[in-house]
Amino acid sequence: MSDDRPERPPVSGLLDALRVRRNATAGAAAGLALAALVYLVRVFELLGPVTATQRYPLLGPEGWFLGLAFVLASATALFVTAALTAVTAVRLARRL
Asked: Domain extents for the chain?
C-alpha cells in the first residue's frame, strides 16, 4: 500500500460552475428584503395594531422582532441560495 494520495481537483472550479457566489448574493438580498419588510410591517404596525397585547421582557418588541428578522433573513438566504444552486446544477447536468 502506498501512503501517497492522488491530487484532488480544486473545488473552486465547481463553485464557479455552479455560480455559488452569485446565488449567495441573490439569496442574501432576498433574505434581507423579506426580513426588512416583515420587520417594518410588524414593528410599525403597518397593517394595523395586533389585537392581543403581549409582554416583551428585556428587549421590548423591537428587539425581539429584530432577532426574529435575523433568523428569517438567514433562513431565506440559505433557502434561495440552495434552490438557485440546485437549478444551476440541473441545467449544467442536462447540458453535459
From this structure: 19-48+56-95
Query: pTM for this one?
Result: 0.77
pLDDT digits (tens, 9 = 90+) for 27-80: 999 999 999 999 888 877 777 776 566 777 788 777 888 899 999 999 999 999
CA distances from 55 to 3, 49, 52, 62, 80 (A): 63, 15, 10, 12, 33
Instruction: Mark out the alpha helices in 18-59 (DSSP H runs).
Output: 20-43
Kindly report the number of other CB atoms within 10 A of residue 4's CB atom.
6
Name the grid cell of 94: 442536462
Nearest CA-CA partner of 36 in 68, 64, 60: 68
